[in-house]
Design brief:
The chain has 91 residues and is mainly α. The chain has three helices and no strands. The radius of gyration is 17 Å and the shape is elongated.
């Protein structure tokens, strides 16, 4: 039962990362297509939402998958670390 659940968690994590990569590649192609620095900056600004969202979702899925193996305080430390990363790179 748990291995089946963990397999779904793993597929979700990998799927989100693939989706994120496809969004990044699509944005790069769009930058070339529009051929304007102004448009490229606008596209890049939109990507600023994708990265942190995927980071939080993938980390959350991973913690859900490890919930029976990790102590609560360790999960809090990991989520705190993610929070610090997001706080450190905010613009």
């Amino acid at each position: 039962m748990f291995s089946y659940f963990r397999e779904h968690i793993l597929m979700g994590m990998a799927g989100l990362r693939l989706l994120s990569g496809l969004i990044e590649i699509t944005a790069a192609v769009a930058m070339f297509y529009f051929g304007s620095v102004q448009k490229a900056v606008q596209i890049n600004a939109g990507l600023a939402l994708v990265g942190p969202t995927v980071l939080i979702l993938v980390t959350s899925l991973g913690l859900i998958g490890l919930a029976d193996k990790l102590e609560f305080w360790r999960m809090v430390v990991v989520m705190g670390g993610v929070g610090l990363i997001l706080w450190g790179v905010r613009g």
